[in-house]
Amino acid sequence: MNLRLDLVLTGHFFIMFHKRFLLVLILCGFVILYLTIPSNTFASQEKLVIAHRGASGYVPEHTLEGAVLAFAMKADFLELDVVMTSDGHLIVMHDLTLNATTNVDEIFPDRSGTNGKHLSMEFSLAEVKRLRVHERSNKRGSGPAFIGRFPYESSLFEVPTLEEILKLVNGLKKSHGRIMGLYIEIKGAEIHRQYNLDPAAELLAILERYDYLEASDPIWIQSFDAEVLKTLRHKHKTRLKLVQLIGENRWRLSATDFDYLKTKTGLKEVVGYADGIGPWMNHVVTGKNLAGDLKLTGIVSIAHQLNLKVHPYTMREDRLPDYVETFEDLLHIFFNVVQVDGIFTDFPDQAVKYLEKTSIN
Ligand code: G3P
Ligand code: CA
Cβ distance 340 to 334 under 8 Å? Predict the structure, then answer.
């Protein structure tokens, strides 16, 4: 009897011991897994800081130097606009023309352009590489668009190609271990067509060479032009994540009807070809009422119901909307109140600091 009891107790002890041992092993597994996950993965619940045209609040937009600074500031993604040269290279530039951010008038005084404007599609890459990039000019071309940023007179920087950015990001990944994602916008599909250039096809070809192929890869492709995105998804069958940017019809960016896209029916259509939307920040918050309450449009909750990510543009410390006193107020409204999934900002360091301080990520 005692012997049987001993055996039963011993067996019970071993089962208990094994269960505990197994539990400890599982816990250790979780701890090791947690410790080995890079601190900056792209988990779906994370809020993204997207460095708009690089760390453009500090260094002229769309330069390799601004990209490195964005990386050092721990931006999750680097936002890039791409246009093409006459010989078919994708260069990193916001405008279709070279005038507002380079010294093209000084280097090519004999090129008349169209109404004094020089389209990138009329310059070869070798010619573009002779230019120097400076801070963006105001609309009159009489000085900087943003007073107080990098000295306007300095022309220290080159126009980068997309390929140079890809090499930079890969280099930093190897030397530093952290991946900065890319968030690439195709500009001016229609005008490129007139020059027999196809930036969307070229973009996919380059990205494929650099192994960006899957939805899980750290890359988003964005466009204001719904047709460009539909072509990428349905004709080229890309699996990469796509974002429909939403602007105002009066900006005359493409044939896309933004008033329609902002409706629930429009957003349902977006679900058929994209994974998220990039609304103008004024499409999300329109101000405060007399009682001081925020006026929200509801676009974020509708998009979230449809499983679309929402990344509004563009938050700038030096161009605050009138319903906030500080940049931190603005970050609080978008990250905490409206609960967007990420933001485009010229000041990535401040957004990263805000998220770290408030432990949202
Ligand atoms: O791509 C997001 C935001 O950059 C859209 O505006 O004019 O800066 O390209 P824009
Ligand atoms: Ca852009």
Answer: yes
pTM over 0.90: no
Tell me, yes or no, whether 33 and 56 share the same domain.
no
Mark whether 198 and 107 lie in a shared domain. yes
Distance between Cα 11 and ligand 2 center (Å): 67
94 is catalytic: yes
Closest C-alpha to ligand 1, atom 1: 185
Is 283 within a domain? yes
Domain count, the chain: 2
The encoded tokens of residue 136 equal 């963006």
User: Which residue, by CA, sits nearest to atom 7 of ligand 1?
Assistant: 94
Burial of residue 88 (number of CB atoms within 10 Å: 0-12, 13-18, 19+)? middle
- What's the pLDDT tens digit per position in 262-308? 999 999 999 999 999 999 999 999 999 999 999 999 999 999 999 99
d(CA 178, CA 169): 9
